[in-house]
Amino acid sequence: MSSIASTAGIVSFEQARRLVEQHAAGVRSGEVETVDLLAALGRVLAEGIVADRDFPPFARATRDGYAVRAADLAEVPAQLEVVGAVKAGDWPEPGVCSVGRGQAVEIMTGAPLPAGADAVVMVEHTSLAEHSVEVRRNVSRGENFVPCGAEARAGQLLLDRGRRLDHAGIAIAATVGKSRVQIFRKPRVAVLSTGDEVVEIEATPGAAQIRNSNSYSLAAQVQNAGGEAVRLAIAPDERGRLRSLIEEGLGCDLLLLTGGVSMGKYDLVEQVLGELQAEFYFTGAEIQPGRPIVFGSCGADALARAEGQAAAGTRARAPAPHKRYFFGLPGNPVSTMVTFELFARPMIEALSGQTPQRLIFLRARLKSEIRTKTGLKRFLPAVLSGEFENAEVELARWQGSGDIATLARANCYVVVPPDRERIDSGEWVSLLMR
Ligand code: AMP
Ligand code: MG
User: Atom 14 in ligand 1: which residue has the minimum CA distance?
Assistant: First the structure.
């Protein structure tokens, strides 16, 4: 880990992302549990999934028709003697059901190819008479069946450990007979909202108060990323209480704070983390929204105190690693959501045992021009519309980083490079989907 640069200043978006990825590459995932296959949807494999047999396990017909020898159809139309039939689930015993010169066996999709045959001719190109079939089209050897083992060989690794299971992964596990699979325990991610004005969502807010939406949006994002959110009490803008809640949060696998990281008089998060001897990897990124984002870790001393709190609390935990990472996300709700996706997500993915994913932007044509200022990489809420190959994107008209009503109507962010102050309609732009 010592090879990773510690900048502790304001860095570009790309530097910030690299720093997170480098630290994420060094974290270890949690314990392993074994669950029923469908309960593993969205979870991360703690074991590799291996082919238990060849796939396909037999030469499998991909069409309904006749198993033939391609050489017999050099000249068409050709008359072939029909010597048998195989449907899916039948096993054509060689000698009992095989294809000799001038012969054909009726075959259905999914059935094993009989010995002697080297192609399947589609039923559409044939006409059946008494005991023979007339074939009007020729076929090449190998046509319309998949050879035994062509998709995978017995013993071959089909899904890596560290892979998050989606429906395709579930299909693989199912096809090799894994009714139960080993997965990693979800990382516990503490979510700590700060601010004197922030109240619980059940409360009736006073005139100058707002409800704590960030703890909920973050909890939802944590779950989406494969973590388990632990929502802590709201921290007031007061050192002592903030510090004890941060210590509580450090008892989880990762701590996400929101609010209190700007330059205001009551933005105490960095100060309190400093008191806990935190190491800061960056304390801002050249992005908008989200510029004040902070990324760092707390070492052994702070963790020992956190462990003390956890032991006194409800849950005992596995032995602690030597440090715990935290993100101080800006309090503005849109900034919180964007910075989570850009920086916190890869750390949660890594803690959940996933191979860290690269961030990929998509491209679409801009529907109406963008004017902005240079200097920051911008992630601006936008609406991707159109249909099929004709996607087009347009900025949502928003009131800034606090505007969750507009954000909820948007479905992506347009990524504006820091050197562009104008992008014309019709230009291709990068998108971050959400
Ligand atoms: P801060 O980053 O603490 O300066 O907060 C920036 C803005 O985000 C302020 O308008 C806060 O009221 C708002 N804010 C901070 N925390 C939350 C929260 N948990 N839920 C909703 N809005 C918040
Ligand atoms: Mg605040």
Answer: 331
